[in-house]
From TrEMBL:
Pfam families: DUF6340. It comes from Coprobacter tertius. PROSITE patterns: PROKAR_LIPOPROTEIN. InterPro entries: DUF6340, TPR-like_helical_dom_sf. This is DUF6340 family protein.
Length: 338
């Protein structure tokens, strides 16, 4: 898995924080689902039509770069994935009813679009409006060896999971969803035979299914995400008092002092910091357009002395982008949370 976007910027914020001119805080924000479901459609049936896979063909790369075929045996993971989808969707609280529809013989339906008759039969059986079909789920493994020291090799197992779904709306219009991602595990030890790799493979497969299920849920359901935010502090008495209020959760009291600093200070840098802090205050009030106005004011003032404020300008650019995203997300959320 790769670090999230903004990692480099947030690292620079942490470095600046050590100078005690910037403090961090964490916000929980609601992100919209990528796929907007029909209004008031809050029931879904999950169907597994994936081909059963009892193992995967991959490649082993030793410490010298030589390759040889790798075969991993495991229990069909598609059942785990569908069960986890059921659990995660249920925990989201977004759907009023979720059902699993079991087809004991799914051979004839593999890689085929479901017919209206088949969909009607599923809806009649479960009473749910939407049907989500797992049409394919397979895993590509790669095992890499490198030397940790003279005696012990380190093995890295990469599993690339590919999943494909069809989401059928109440009118039987459908959308295809495809997703691929990689998880990896490290282990110190030796390979014993061709399939003994030193990992709990069943646990790795379950982790992969859980990670894949979590991603799909975020495509269908608005979700919470923890994000980093920053605010300026200084030894200036006014800014210092505001920071105390802020840490105590007295956000409105802090905002009054920042507004006073903005209106009465003759120092551009102090005004820019106060404006940036006010942007954060209004973001906490879910007033994203006003927050964006304050962030832009701060950015413009810092830009008057660009060479001295390079790091602050970079931070404000990033924050302005975050606020613009929240404004865009808010439009989708209003529809999705009806």
């Amino acid at each position: 898995m790769k670090p999230g976007l903004g990692f480099i910027l947030l690292t620079s914020i942490c470095i600046l924080t050590s100078c005690s001119s910037i403090s961090e805080m964490t916000l929980n924000v609601v992100r919209p689902a990528e796929i907007t479901l029909p209004v008031f459609t809050r029931t879904v049936t999950l169907v597994n039509l994936s081909k059963k896979n009892e193992g995967s063909e991959g490649v082993f790369i030793d410490a010298y770069g030589s390759k040889r075929p790798l075969r991993l045996e495991y229990t069909d993971p598609s059942g785990n994935l569908v069960q986890m989808l059921n659990d995660y969707l249920g925990k989201s609280g977004y759907f009023s009813n979720i059902s699993l529809f079991t087809l004991f013989d799914r051979t004839n339906l593999l890689n085929k679009k479901m017919t209206d008759k088949e969909l009607d039969a599923i809806r009649d059986s479960t009473g749910n409006e939407m049907v989500l079909v797992l049409s394919d789920f397979y895993i590509e493994p790669t095992l890499r060896e490198r030397w940790y020291n003279t005696y012990s090799p380190v093995l890295t197992l990469d599993l690339v999971a590919h999943s494909k779904y069809e989401l059928y709306a109440p009118d039987n219009k459908y959308e295809t969803i495809s997703y691929s991602d990689t998880l990896y595990w490290d282990n110190v030890g030796e390979i014993v035979g061709d399939t003994e790799i030193g990992f709990s493979l069943d646990n790795c497969i379950k982790d992969m299914a859980g990670y894949t299920a979590d991603h799909l849920v975020k495509l269908l359901v608005p979700y919470n995400e923890s994000v980093k935010r920053f605010y300026f502090t200084s030894s200036d008495p006014l800014m210092k008092d505001a920071a105390i209020y802020w840490k105590q959760g007295k956000y409105e009291d802090a905002s009054y002092l920042w507004e006073y600093a903005w209106e009465n200070s003759k120092k551009n840098k102090k005004r820019a910091k106060a404006a940036a802090n006010l942007a954060l205050y209004y973001e906490l009030q879910d007033n994203y357009s006003t927050a964006l106005e304050w962030a832009n004011r701060s950015f413009r003032i810092f830009s008057l002395s660009a060479e001295k404020n390079t790091a602050y300008i970079r931070m404000l650019k990033w924050y302005i982008g975050q606020l613009e995203k929240r404004i865009k997300d808010d439009d989708k959320l209003r529809f999705q949370l009806i």
